[in-house]
């Protein structure tokens, strides 16, 4: 209700031509299918249009076209470079997120458990070899037990 | 699924999409008119000729008004086909009766757009419509240079 009154101050067309005040669409507005106000030149051109079209020059034909249609098909269908902005924006925000993650690692998370220490990891590795983990085709199969090194 | 090539005679109205939409592909002398089996639940199948003549009749109305022209063209362009030259001829003559050159040029642009990737349809249409275009004095978008940016 308030929006209706506010909007009626802006446009001179009645709000009732829209299906709803907020809607992104409306019923057909008369401006969409009637000719716009014509200048004197355009009016005389429109009169000339009632005669033979062969008598019109190319410029006149284009002028008549432009009265009725804002954009030609070529203009309407042309692409834009908007996608570059979109992709650029994606990269930017992904990069920013990466910075946030790095900051988090440094300032938010506490230390990792002691089980990540290199010495502990060595002991884990030795234990796995001792247990013959996957001795046929996997882990221990790659260890040379004779020479105490990884197989070449 | 209809084919649209018979000999070298190439018809403008071809199947534009392979989906289950109703096919209004042209049939030429080598095919009999209606297809025998169609997956419609009921109702008569309209042949291509019936479709074409219905639309030619629509645009041939002597006192057609501007709204009817716009409505007809918008509906026709909404179909999954490129209209036959004779339908376009009828529509262009309706534009002439309405003294609307802009719509005539727009119709030509629209059918070129409808043909999509099938680049040989539009030249065929222009070739078929050449007498009418000359008679009515309609320039093609290419002649006016508005097909380019």
UniProtKB/TrEMBL annotation, chain A:
GO cellular component: mitochondrial inner membrane; respiratory chain complex IV
Pfam families referenced in this protein's UniProt entry, alphabetically: COX4
Segments traversing the membrane: 85-103
Main location: mitochondrion
Localization, UniProt: Mitochondrion inner membrane
Matching CDD domains: Cyt_c_Oxidase_IV
The protein's annotated pathway: Energy metabolism; oxidative phosphorylation
Assembly mode: Component of the cytochrome c oxidase (complex IV, CIV), a multisubunit enzyme composed of 14 subunits. The complex is composed of a catalytic core of 3 subunits MT-CO1, MT-CO2 and MT-CO3, encoded in the mitochondrial DNA, and 11 supernumerary subunits COX4I, COX5A, COX5B, COX6A, COX6B, COX6C, COX7A, COX7B, COX7C, COX8 and NDUFA4, which are encoded in the nuclear genome.
Summary of the function given for this chain in its UniProt record: Component of the cytochrome c oxidase, the last enzyme in the mitochondrial electron transport chain which drives oxidative phosphorylation.
Family named by the database record: Belongs to the cytochrome c oxidase IV family.
Name of protein: Cytochrome c oxidase subunit 4
UniProt organism field: Amphiprion ocellaris (Clown anemonefish)
Lineage of the species this protein comes from: Eukaryota, Metazoa, Chordata, Craniata, Vertebrata
Automatic annotation (TrEMBL), chain B:
Membrane topology: Peripheral membrane protein
A GO BP annotation: mitochondrial electron transport, cytochrome c to oxygen
Family matches, as SUPFAM superfamilies: Cytochrome c oxidase subunit E (SSF48479)
GO molecular function: metal ion binding
Domain of life: Eukaryota
Cellular component terms (Gene Ontology): mitochondrial inner membrane; respiratory chain complex IV
Annotated pathway: Energy metabolism; oxidative phosphorylation
Signal peptide region: none
Keywords: Acetylation, Heme, Iron, Membrane, Metal-binding, Mitochondrion, Mitochondrion inner membrane, Phosphoprotein, Transit peptide, Ubl conjugation
Principal place of residence: mitochondrion
Location(s), subcellular: Mitochondrion inner membrane
Gene3D superfamilies the UniProt entry points to: Cytochrome c oxidase, subunit Va/VI
Family: Belongs to the cytochrome c oxidase subunit 5A family.
Function comment: Component of the cytochrome c oxidase, the last enzyme in the mitochondrial electron transport chain which drives oxidative phosphorylation. The respiratory chain contains 3 multisubunit complexes succinate dehydrogenase (complex II, CII), ubiquinol-cytochrome c oxidoreductase (cytochrome b-c1 complex, complex III, CIII) and cytochrome c oxidase (complex IV, CIV), that cooperate to transfer electrons derived from NADH and succinate to molecular oxygen, creating an electrochemical gradient over the inner membrane that drives transmembrane transport and the ATP synthase.
Subunit text: Component of the cytochrome c oxidase (complex IV, CIV), a multisubunit enzyme composed of a catalytic core of 3 subunits and several supernumerary subunits. The complex exists as a monomer or a dimer and forms supercomplexes (SCs) in the inner mitochondrial membrane with ubiquinol-cytochrome c oxidoreductase (cytochrome b-c1 complex, complex III, CIII).
Protein name per UniProt: Cytochrome c oxidase subunit 5A, mitochondrial
Organism field: Amphiprion ocellaris (Clown anemonefish)
